[in-house]
Specification:
Blueprint: H1 6-11, E1 27-33, E2 39-45, H2 47-51, E3 55-59, E4 84-85, E5 91-97, H3 100-107, E6 111-116, H4 123-128, E7 137-141, H5 144-148, E8 153-161, E9 173-179, E10 183-188, H6 193-204, E11 211-215, H7 230-243, E12 247-250, H8 253-259, E13 266-274, E14 280-292, H9 298-307, E15 317-326, H10 340-358, H11 362-368, H12 387-397, H13 400-413, E16 417-430, E17 440-446, E18 452-456, H14 465-477, E19 484-486, E20 489-490, H15 505-532, E21 539-542, E22 545-548, E23 551-556, H16 557-566, E24 572-577, E25 583-585, E26 590-592, E27 596-609, E28 615-627, H17 632-651, E29 682-689, H18 712-725, E30 733-735, H19 739-746
Parallel strand pairs: 1-12, 8-30, 10-11, 14-15, 18-19, 28-29
Antiparallel strand pairs: 1-5, 2-4, 2-6, 3-5, 7-15, 8-13, 9-10, 9-12, 11-20, 13-14, 16-27, 17-18, 17-24, 21-22, 22-23, 25-26, 27-28
The structure holds pteridine-2,4(1H,3H)-dione and dioxothiomolybdenum(VI) ion (MOS).
The site of pteridine-2,4(1H,3H)-dione (LUZ) has 12 residues, from helix 9.
Length: about 775
């Protein structure tokens, strides 16, 4: 089925936050944020700004009627700074004016005096100084101390991965509208409508029932709007609360890049031990997560790093410890993969280091250690694995051995261009790691004309979830899509939602929709049975016709709906779903946290220009476990997008903060993201059609996050190309591997190939 948004998207008619028709009297906000990363506020001078043309009012923390608090997991995040600032870009005041231009002009006239305090930007330094967001956590299986003695080879090292700007095409923003009786409606570009509602209620000291949050769609979220959309929604609501006027704030790109958190940079240490035949016997890792100034989602992200620290491998002895380190940067947050990619990069680095030292391809070690069904993850869950199947399948399907041979021939024949390739297996756990969050609801109405309305807690952010929700209703009722409308996500219709996150949105909300539709269908069948003097079990609905024992009757969908209504039977239902069987004990750090895992294998090849350090990603060839895909075109889009975003993170997106904690890569002129020229020339995706239990909706599997991690293979493919040019190259495990770093690595080893002219070449 075609994505239901495709038509409007192509025509530019889809409504995003800034497209909502403005109500007369709407005012516009803009934030004054801290120019300094850490310090005491000595004096805030609003006088001149208040006199600025068109300014209505300027809000500070003093105007907050409830608590000045928007922290999601830990209450450590003020909406507006009080006496201290913790990062550059921290909101201090909210200017509201008759136009956005007037608001921005006034922001420039706000003056602040701040006594600077020492700035920490490095997570290891933060840990040394005891600046931890939460106590460290350790996942453990077996006994690494005892295992080292049995290892034939042991390697230690350090791996760093940088952050990543979300770069959703639609920036953050909100539009708050006053409703009678002190209620406020907030249109928000958020993945978590309930988070916006909950915090608006806390800040305004209002019951949640008076805050309505409505989301039609987002122009991308990628995790950046899981928690951090809250701030803007609450800020607009604060102004609306006082002024009784609609207030809108849609951030400029540079404001968004400066004020919001990103993927967490990590610095990590690893130690890996292998047997003589290259089985991984032991693995230890210490992760230093750069959390930024507040907790935000960092504790949960840190947890997922631990869950995915062994990626797709079975390792009998593991000890992994993670520290969430408080620094003076904007609070880092959820980003597609949610700590998983950072954990996987470290074990892939450890395997690469072992492979390079032992003189074998990393893929030999990877393949030997793939997790099998029944093997135990370090957190106690037993694997139901497709890892080997994906690997074997990709090897034969894409004729990997031949590609390798061709690349070796190419490298032997070419001095200044080298090909490199890598295999990247992925295993990603599906469920919110916080078991409680795995719940969803859907409200389904059948109207008397036979049309159907579906509302769920799912937020459409371009991932196609609304199309999937529509498919569920269409399938259960056996109706054409045109009869069904999926409505905006609204906290008045569906309450207490978990954010659309963790790749689980279609799973959870789809199941809730299925449950609601089935409840209505059962009632319809009972009415039909009564009408036809039959049993409900003999009734079916197919293509808008009621069938009795498989034979068409003269009752159609519309007639049956009307009959049901006339019998005063409800045509509405509110479905509720929680996945069964998941649990986790944080004291033991053991349990069964994931409903299931998604597996896949990617083969990535690259060509490096060894004079310039620039490169192309030639091909990414994937076998991916989709379960039974509900919508192959949408799922393919998720895989392609994930791969490109992952490659961007690993190879070109270079986030730069200076020592003072100021973002230097603060615009698209200084922060390079993948474009049409840098995407892989070829992306092949093979659907591994697994027919397992019905763990997700309609036997599909979650698809949002797992493919991002294929991009990690691009780093290792580049590494191998560099080593084909210079076997002694010194290449730190430090992503992204930008063209500058590639160039320096190509000519890095002392005494070897100082310049291209003296290169003897490999062949
Ligand atoms: N968000 C969250 C997530 O709150 N919990 C999770 O486990 C998660 N996993 C992936 C992405 N977002
Ligand atoms: Mo997410 S990182 O699933 O919001």
């Amino acid at each position: 089925m075609q994505n239901i948004d495709a038509y409007n998207h192509v025509r530019g008619e889809s409504v995003y936050l800034d497209d909502i028709p403005t109500i007369a009297g709407t005012l516009y906000g803009a934030v004054f944020d801290s120019p300094i990363a850490h310090g005491h506020i000595k004096r805030l001078d609003l006088e001149e700004a208040l006199k600025s043309e068109g300014v209505v009012r300027i809000f500070t923390y003093k105007d907050i009627p409830g608590e000045n608090q928007v922290g999601g997991i830990v209450p450590d995040e003020p909406l507006l700074a009080e006496h201290e600032v913790h990062f550059c870009g921290m909101p201090i005041a909210f200017v509201v004016a008759f136009s956005a231009e007037a608001a921005y002009a006034a922001v420039k006239k706000v003056k602040v005096e701040i006594d600077p305090l020492p700035v920490i930007t490095d997570p290891r330094e933060a840990k040394e100084k005891g600046e931890l967001i939460i106590p460290p956590r350790t996942f453990q299986i077996g006994d690494t101390d005892a295992a080292w003695k049995k290892c034939a080879h042991i390697f230690e090292g350090r791996a760093d991965s940088n952050g990543q700007e979300h770069l959703y095409i639609e920036t953050q923003g909100a539009y708050a509208v006053p409703i009678e009786n002190d209620a406020i409606k907030i249109y928000s570009s958020t993945q978590g409508p309930t988070a916006v509602q909950r915090h608006a209620a806390v800040v305004l000291k209002l019951p949640m029932s008076r805050i309505e949050v409505d989301v039609t769609r987002l122009g991308g979220g990628f995790g950046g709007k899981e928690d951090q959309a809250t701030i803007w929604g609450v800020m607009c609501a604060l102004a609306t609360y006082h002024l009784k006027k609609p207030v809108k704030y849609s951030l400029h790109r540079m404001e968004d890049m400066r004020m919001t958190g990103k993927r967490h940079p990590y610095s990590s240490d690893f130690k890996i031990g292998l047997s003589k035949d290259h089985k991984i016997l032991a693995y230890e890792a210490t992760f230093y997560q750069n959390a930024g100034a507040t907790a935000d989602l960092s504790p949960a992200v840190m947890e997922r790093t631990l869950f995915h620290c062994t990626n797709s491998y079975f390792v009998p002895n593991v000890k992994a410890t993670a520290y969430s380190c408080r620094t003076n940067l904007p609070s880092n947050t959820a980003f597609r993969g949610f700590g998983g990619p950072q954990g996987m990069f470290v074990i892939e680095s450890a395997i690469a280091q072992a492979a390079e030292a032992l003189g074998v391809p990393a893929s030999d070690i990877q393949q030997k250690n793939l997790i099998k069904t029944g093997d135990e993850f370090p957190y106690g869950q037993k694997a139901d694995s497709e890892a080997v199947e994906c690997w074997e399948h990709s090897k034969t399907l894409y004729n990997i051995d031949q590609i390798r041979k061709d690349a070796e021939l190419f490298n032997a024949a070419n001095k200044l261009y080298k090909k490199g390739f890598a295999v990247m297996p992925v295993c990603f756990g599906i469920s919110f790691t916080k078991t409680m969050m795995n719940q969803a609801r859907a409200q389904v109405h059948v109207y008397t004309d036979g049309s159907v309305a579906v509302s769920t807690g799912a937020v459409e952010m371009g991932q196609g979830v609304n199309t999937k929700m529509l498919q569920v209703a269409a399938q259960v009722f056996s109706l054409p899509p045109a009869r069904i409308k999926v409505n905006s996500t609204n906290t008045y219709r569906v309450a207490n939602t978990s954010p659309s996150a963790a790749s689980a949105t279609a799973d959870l909300n789809g199941k809730a929709t299925e449950i609601a539709c089935n409840a209505i269908l059962d009632r319809l069948k009972r009415v039909a049975a009564e009408e036809l003097g039959a049993k409900p079990g003999q009734i079916e609905l197919k293509n808008e016709i009621v069938l009795l024992k498989g034979k068409p009757t003269d009752i159609d969908w519309k007639k049956l709906v009307m009959l049901t209504y006339m019998k005063r039977i409800s045509l509405s239902e509110h479905g509720h779903y929680t996945p069964p069987g998941i649990h986790f004990d944080m004291k033991k750090e053991k349990g069964h946290p994931f409903a299931y895992h998604v597996y896949g294998t990617a083969f990535i090849s690259t060509t490096v220009d060894c004079l310039r350090g620039i490169y192309t990603i030639d091909a990414v060839k994937v076998v991916h476990d989709f379960g039974q895909s509900m919508n192959p075109l949408i799922d393919l889009g998720q895989v392609e997008g994930g791969i490109v975003q992952g490659i961007g993170w690993m190879t070109m997106e270079e986030l730069v903060y200076d020592k003072e904690g100021r973002l230097r890569s603060n615009a698209l002129s200084t922060y390079k993201v993948p474009d049409i020229y840098s995407v892989p020339k070829e992306i092949d995706v093979h659907f591994l059609d697994t027919k397992k239990e019905n763990l997700a909706i309609l036997r599909s599997k979650a698809v949002g996050e797992p493919p991002l991690m294929y991009g990690i293979g691009a780093y290792f493919a580049l590494r191998n190309a560099i080593r084909a040019f210079n076997p002694n190259a010194v290449i730190p495990y430090d992503a992204p591997l930008t063209p500058e770093k590639v160039l320096m690595s190509l000519y890095s080893a002392a005494g070897v190939r100082q310049s291209p002219e003296v290169v003897p070449g490999n062949g």
